[in-house]
Amino acid sequence: MSRFHRLSQEIIASETPQAARRVVREIERALRAERARRGHWTYDLNRHIALLVAHRAESARLARLRGAAIRSGGAEKA
Predict the structure, then answer these.
(1) Residue 41 and residue 78: Cα distance in Å, rounded?
(2) Is residue 1 scored above 50 in pLDDT?
(3) Taking CA 10 as the corner, what is the angle to CA 9 and CA 14, rounded to the nearest 5 degrees?
(4) Residue 34 CB-density burial (10 A; 0-12 exposed, 13-18 middle, 19+ buried)
(5) What would you measure as the largest C-alpha separation in the chain, in angstroms?
(6) Closest CA to 5 of 33, 38, 39, 35
(7) φ and ψ at 24, to 5 degrees?
(8) What is the pLDDT of residue 4?
(9) How far apart are alpha carbons 50 and 22 in whole angstroms?
(10) Which of 17, 1, 5 shows the shortest CA–CA distance to 54?
(11) pLDDT tens track for 7-34
(12) How far apart are CA 31 and CA 17, in angstroms?
């Protein structure tokens, strides 16, 4: 199985705002790369859609984790 990302499984599974932000940034990087292929034979619409779905889900997770950190009075920067 090939990996499109450069993150470890521990970072991906981590429930911290910092880790979630790294995941969102990595998905954004993959989306930019996929958009750059638009019009080329290697472009994959299904991959692009999957990246968009993942980006929405991870963005929602990041918002939830940031909200939890704020509610718990966490001083760490999200």
Answers:
(1) 39
(2) no
(3) 120
(4) buried
(5) 50
(6) 33
(7) -60, -45
(8) 56
(9) 18
(10) 5
(11) 888 888 888 999 999 999 999 999 999 9
(12) 21
- Give 3-state DSSP helix, strand, coil % of the chain, rounded to 5: 65, 0, 35
Which amino acid is present at 50? Answer: A
Q: Residues 6 or more apart from 59 whose CB is under 8 A from it?
A: 24
Locate 77 and state its tokens. 């920067």
Query: Which two three-digit tokens encode residue 58?
Result: 């991870």
Identify the residue whose tokens are 């918002």. Answer: 63
As a dihedral over the C-alpha atoms of residue 12, residue 74, residue 64, residue 14, rounded to 10 degrees, the angle is 10
**Structure tokens that stand for 63 in this block:** 């918002």
User: Left, alpha or beta for 39 (phi > 0: left; psi -120 to 50: alpha)?
Assistant: left
